[in-house]
Amino acid sequence: MAKYGLVGKDISYSFSKKFFSDKFEIEGLKDTYQNFDLCSIENFPGIFSECHNIKGLNVTIPYKESIIPFLDKIDKEAEKIGAVNTIKVDKNNRLKGYNTDYYGFAKSLANFLPIKNKTALILGTGGASKAVAYVLETMDFEYKFVSRTKTASNLTYKDLNNNIIADHFLIINTTPVGTFPDIRRFPTLPYQYIGKDHVLFDLIYNPQETEFLKLGYAQGARVSNGLKMLEFQALRSWEIWNK
Q: By Cβ atoms counted within 10 A, which residue in 22, 93, 113, 222 is the most buried?
């Protein structure tokens, strides 16, 4: 009986455990999937003492980048992106990191193409934002990161004005702002400048309709949550674990 799981912090709400548990039941497998809720990434090696016969893991916020030093090998896409959300454990118990977020995002975004102009704002600078940026680069999008802290390479939320919003037709929230249970929170944008040519994509899936998406939809934008992206990336993880 193989064991799988999700590594993250404060992940009781997570989609992955139910998704894979249901999948195993439907396919008649005795495999199990559990959450490894770690207060620190330094506790990661301990899960292999606690739980034997682990064959694969998913990784979520906030450990997609900090997990990398604990791995024996990293796939070329994950290395380019700089973030890992899937780990395969081989027969010699070596850990290889992959990124399936970029695959899930690309498959989900395809349903919204074409967009008026290939210009995007990526809200957040964590591990998920790197996978999003990787996809946008392959699709020849111009994009800018938006963060609370100003750097040479990104905008802040205070920088966002009519001109910037009008020039960027895809806005992706890669932050956890608005995730259950803090569902009333949302990224601070000048939503009044969003219109029917915009697409708002939220990587959050719980709740299914975040305040970010509601505010965009009210302005006429097309919107999507992260549920399809998660399903695509989860199925890709399963392929990696079983190849």
A: 222
